[in-house]
Amino acid sequence: MKNYLIISIARSLLIARWKQTLIAAVGVTFSITMFIALLGFMNGLNDLLDSLVMNRTPHVRIFNEIKANTKQPINVSKDYKAHHNFIRSIKPSGNSTQIFDNAKIIETLRKDVRVLGISPKMTAQVFYNVGPIDITGVVNGIDVEAESKLFYFQDYMREGSYMDLKNIPNSIILGNGVANKMLSEIGDVIQLSTPSGNRFPLKVVGIFQSGIMEIDKIQSYASLKTTQKLLGKSNNYITDIQIKLKDMKLAPMLSKEYAHIFNSDAEDIQTANSQFETGSSVRTLISYAVGITLLIVAGFGIYNILNMMIYEKMDSIAILKATGFSGKDVNKIFMLIALSIGFFGGIGGLLSGFVLSSIIDQIPFNTAAMPTITTYPINYNPKFYLIGMSFSIITTYFAGYFPAKKASKIDPVDIIRGK
């Protein structure tokens, strides 16, 4: 049968019962709208939460960990080789946290095509002196430009400029929690003391806020040169080499490789932040589950409407078959009705989902923990829209398949005889 005639009949049936058609299309539209908005919001939230830690975490970190020496005298003694030796209260060996020959290591890493960038770092345990009170803290010595380029340091600045660490000698950027405890502002000079008892004055040039309160209460930043001077170390003293890779998925493999090559400890981002990845995966899975459930519910609505349409159009189906339409043609008519509802309902859902996401994206969201965030986060990944439209077509296809199959098997003689 001519396809244009089949399309014309399908359109006539849709228009004849436009209220039911509209209800079915609205059901699909609502499902797709919520699917798009929910996935966009949940993934935007995932990106926000992950960025709080992931943006500040290297893909691979090379360091020297203080640990006990596994080669104990009793284990290397010939007299006790055949014994099981249980050793307790082993003290750490005298190894240093300093990374030796770090210049050669950095040069080697920079030649590695898999590496995006490198940022050397060192940490110093200090006390912030506030009158007679000493507040425990940590000063991170950083390469300011590398830290900003690789770890978005400037995005977490609440006040001041991060480049002042490089341009102003003996300067410091305080964590927001530390600054509040000390009632310090930009331009103030604070006193720090080291565990060895040395006191050191530093000028506050900025306030930093990571969004993780426990970190902001103790952590501050200074240039490598200032931190080395604070601890009385040479200008080649560093304790960490932070590495950003071009492909983060290579981190577990490369951490083992670098640990072996450079005879140091290495930790990859997946190991350091496994709980964040798990949380993101669970939230995304929940979003997909809710969205797909909505689409399936809409599919049952279309199934019921098509079943009712077939029941009410028995006479029309009998006439179509009596005038030369085959069961295959009747099947095409009702499948076209179902897919039309899915297609136009899906298009409406995509547009409505985008509009709803845009509205959510404009809602103010202010929190002291995340000063750089001003509105609710939304992810506009085109993948969500493609998945939503695909599920819309697939769901309505299966919703229309069984009613269409039923209509194609109707015997016009039985219908006319029943009348």
List keywords for this structure.
elongated, 419 residues
Shape: elongated
Intertermini distance: 27 Å
What is the helix fraction of residues, given as a range?
Answer: 40-55%
| Contiguous uncertain segments of 5+ residues | none
Q: Helical element count?
A: 16
Radius of gyration: 33 Å
H-E order: HHEHHEEHEHEHEEHEHEHEHHHHHH
Calculate the mean pLDDT score and round it. Answer: 81
Q: Which structural category do the helix and sheet elements fall into? A: alpha+beta
Report the β-strand fraction as a percent range: 15-25%
SS elements, strand count = 10
Q: In order across it, which strands form the biggest sheet? A: 2-3-8-5-7-6
Describe the sheet with the most strands: 6 strands, mixed, barrel
What is the secondary structure topology, with strand pairs?
Layout: H1 3-16, H2 18-54, E1 60-63, H3 73-76, H4 102-111, E2 115-130, E3 133-142, H5 144-151, E4 157-160, H6 164-167, E5 171-175, H7 176-182, E6 189-193, E7 199-208, H8 213-216, E8 219-223, H9 224-231, E9 240-245, H10 251-262, E10 265-268, H11 269-272, H12 274-312, H13 314-322, H14 327-361, H15 382-408, H16 412-418
Parallel strand pairs: 3-8, 5-7
Antiparallel strand pairs: 1-9, 1-10, 2-3, 2-6, 2-9, 4-7, 5-8, 6-7
Helix pairs in contact: 1-14, 2-12, 2-14, 2-15, 12-15, 13-16, 14-15
